Amino acid sequence: MKFVDEYRDPAAVREVVAGIERLAGDRPVKFMEVCGGHTHTIYRHGIEQLLPSTVEMVHGPGCPVCVIPMGRVDDAIAVAETPGVVFTSFGDMMRVPGSTSTLLEAKARGADVRMVYSPMDALEVAAANPDLEVVFFAVGFETTAPSTALTLLAARERSIGNFSVFCNHVTIIPPIRAILDSPDLRLDGFLGPGHVSTVIGTRPYRFVPEQYGLPLVATGFEPFDILQGVHMLLAQLAEGRCAVENQYTRVVPDDGNPRALEVMSRVFTLRPHFEWRGLGFISQSALALGGEFADWDAELRFAVPGVRVADPKACQCGEVLKGAIRPWECKVFGTACTPETPIGTCMVSSEGACAAYYNYGRLAGQALIPVRST
């Protein structure tokens, strides 16, 4: 099975782990895996137990559901509860808490909220229901933005006027820069996000070594990918190098996907400011619909409250997203906040760090099952 069995081969894993142990040395290093998919691979497969004690992995803001602030969820619920609206969303976002409820609870109150698997599914709902207003809740980094852009191009071409997009797409480079500028976090390198890199390539990350003197390795999602990415980072440190490298060459081109980038540039424009959970307002960090697509912009079509809402005091999702604390260090983790009763977004999403720790048994500072050395 191409690219699955090969990346879970025990002999290959043992070899790269031995290489990591040789390179690690005695100096502690801290690497951030930017993408939530990396976090889940690490804890699902027990990779943190294979790494030397001197190599620490912390999670970053690469979970697209987790970074959406409560106020934007409240805005989505307000649109969903507008009479005559069919509000469509990916499944994860339906359970994300707003200040008082979730989209799923709005559905229970009578709002027509439907789960879809793609924005094109939402467009087909609009085509089949011309008397209703169909809104798509667009979230995600550059990974999912091209599909929203293509859907908007299709809506214009097919003259489907009862379709609109509540756009919450964000971009990856500004939050990485914000983390690097944070005074309370020391890092030695990054595992760069794999999915985003399939669209934007590796060139946009060059500011990390050039301006901050840290290595970055764009990395895939299989267990061997993660270990090889860590090995590549350690090799750079051992050799005194600092560069952007591409471990995920089977999928990620250095120049990205020109077609995806082109459709995004046609449809979207950068927002001057956008609020991120845990990181606050970051300029030029999110996408809005360009002027040609104003007729399909849900924020212009409906009354959106647009009120900033502070996170619950008990929730420390913001610190988790910045890598400042581990999920188990949050005072409500695994008690008041669980996947069944989430307080914060990090416990909801399939890419959320808190969900990874909870689902794979990392409920304290020490792994539950120690790995025997061979």
Notes on the structure:
This protein is α/β, with parallel strands linked by helices and 374 residues long. It folds into 2 domains: 1-313, Rossmann fold (3-Layer(aba) Sandwich), CATH 3.40.50.11740; 317-358, no CATH class. Helix content is 35%, strand content 17%. It is built from 15 helices and 13 strands. The chain has helices at 10-24, 36-44, 47-50, 70-80, 103-108, 119-128, 145-157, 173-180, 194-200, 207-212, 223-239, 258-267, 298-301, 317-321, 353-359; strands at residues 29-35, 55-62, 85-89, 112-115, 133-140, 163-169, 189-192, 216-218, 244-246, 268-270, 273-276, 280-283, 287-289. The chain has a 5-stranded parallel sheet, sandwiched between helices. A hairpin with a 3-residue loop joins strand 11 (273-276) and strand 12 (280-283). The longest helix has 17 residues, at 223-239. The protein is globular.
Name a few traits of the molecule.
single chain; 374 residues; alpha/beta; Rossmann fold; five-stranded parallel beta sheet; four-stranded parallel beta sheet; 35% helix
Give me the CATH fold name of the largest domain.
Rossmann fold
* Backbone shape: globular
Along the chain, the helix and strand elements come as HEHHEHEHEHEHEHEHHEHEHEEEEHHH
Low-confidence stretches: 366-374
The termini sit apart by 28 Å
CATH homology group of the largest domain: HypD, alpha/beta domain 2
Instruction: Tell me how many strands there are.
Output: 13
- Walk across the major sheet and give the strand order: 2-1-7-8-9
CATH A-level architecture of the largest domain: 3-Layer(aba) Sandwich
Strand content: 15-25%
- CATH secondary-structure class of the largest domain: Alpha Beta
The biggest beta sheet reads: 5 strands, parallel
How many helices? The count is: 15
Please tell me the total number of domains: 2
Helix content: 25-40%
Q: Which structural class matches the secondary elements?
A: alpha/beta
Mean pLDDT: 91
What is the radius of gyration computed over CA atoms, rounded to a whole number of angstroms?
A: 21 Å
